[in-house]
Amino acid sequence: MNKKAKELLDKLNIEHSLSIEEYEYLLDYLDEELMEAAAEYARAYQKQYYGNKVFTRGLIEFTNFCRNNCYYCGIRRENHNCERYRLSADEIVKCATAGYDLGFRTVVLQGGEDMTYSDDDICNIIARIKEVHPDMVITLSIGERSTESYERYFKAGARRYLLRHETANPALYSKLHPIELSWQNRMRCLHDLKNIGYQVGAGFMVESPGQTTYDLAMDLKFVEEFKPDMCGIGPFISHKDTPFAKQPSGTLNTTLFCLSLIRMIYPQVLLPATTALGTIDSRGREKGILAGANVVMPNLSPVTVRKMYSLYDNKICTGEEAAECRGCLEQRMQSIGYEIVTDPGNRAGF
Ligand code: SAM
Ligand code: FES
């Protein structure tokens, strides 16, 4: 293990802050020993704040229509090979109820930016779920909307919002997205959400095309400064029908190392072991938890539409019923000495 890298890791453990250049140094000198040292620090914080408990959120992918054309994403507007679907309000409420019956006390309603669902529609769906399950915490993940829209969803009862910043470097952002999408608007959204009072999830893709270790270091600095309640990170995985079809996918080790560093930067953060991590390695989610993650997000979408929400190639969990996914994750967590809990799972200290 590089001596200076270990010293920087020790410094991070005490100060929870490094310069971008120092984060870059850690990433440049990543090896097995440094990874394990970071994971050990990370697990100590995970244990301090969350014990051996892993939070779950039921994910309902309710539409794969999207007005955007992000170069990396399998449901981008111009992917004409993508078979499109959208769930009705009744179907969404039904999925939420199925989740409730399985013990989930929080659901994430995620989709492409599908403007067919008006603000009224989104508010009605939130209100209907809250009416039947007042103790269900509702998370939205429906992309960039206006400040007023975010305010309306909050008033209707949504309390969490996931919107990855994707990259903290505006120059890289413009290589991953077409011109009409701006890093500045992404940031505006994230700040709006925080100001309104949502628990906010930011996050980024690891080793997306063109990303340098300096870019990744900028992401770590962003997490340190913005302090999102949740931080969703996973490897970039190529999708055959996108402009990035031939780009190499992100690696397990860099993703696990980033998870450990994020836990050290912000010990209380909610950190999911993502489906993308489980896709590049058959025990990726277990490894993610052992690197410091503390959330898993099993899929509650109807099996009939699962395959169509294809963000990247070979996505896992597209054939299993909600109950199977829940059971599978429960066993996976037990196998590494962790226990899935069903309460809404707020960030420690929220
Ligand atoms: N439309 C919403 C938004 O923009 O936040 C939510 C849906 S979007 C598909 C969810 C996340 O999937 C994105 O934030 C992105 O980080 C991730 N994603 C998309 N394509 C991916 C890929 N090829 N590999 C890994 N992650 C990907
Ligand atoms: Fe879906 Fe394992 S979590 S099958």
Question: What does this protein look like?
Answer:
The protein is an alpha/beta fold. 45% of the residues lie in helices and 13% in strands. The chain contains 14 helices and nine strands. Helix 1 (3-15) packs across helix 2 (20-28), helix 1 (3-15) packs parallel to helix 3 (32-50) and helix 4 (89-101) runs parallel beside helix 5. The longest helix is centred in the N-terminal third of the chain and has 19 residues, at 32-50. The protein starts with a helix and ends in a 9-residue tail after the last strand. The structure holds S-adenosylmethionine (SAM) and FE2/S2 (inorganic) cluster. The site of FE2/S2 (inorganic) cluster has 7 residues, from helix 14. The site of FE2/S2 (inorganic) cluster (FES) has 7 residues, from helix 14.
Task: Offer a concise description of the structure.
The protein has helices at residues 3-15, 20-28, 32-50, 89-101, 119-132, 147-156, 170-176, 183-196, 213-226, 252-265, 275-280, 284-290, 303-306, 322-335; strands spanning 53-56, 58-63, 106-111, 137-141, 158-162, 199-206, 230-235, 295-296, 339-341. With 350 residues, the chain is an alpha/beta fold. The longest helix is centred in the first third of the chain and has 19 residues, at 32-50.
Write the topology of this structure.
Elements: H1 3-15, H2 20-28, H3 32-50, E1 53-56, E2 58-63, H4 89-101, E3 106-111, H5 119-132, E4 137-141, H6 147-156, E5 158-162, H7 170-176, H8 183-196, E6 199-206, H9 213-226, E7 230-235, H10 252-265, H11 275-280, H12 284-290, E8 295-296, H13 303-306, H14 322-335, E9 339-341
Parallel strand pairs: 1-8, 1-9, 2-3, 3-4, 4-5, 5-6, 6-7
Helix pairs in contact: 1-2, 1-3, 2-9, 3-10, 4-5, 5-6, 6-8
The structure holds S-adenosylmethionine and FE2/S2 (inorganic) cluster (FES).
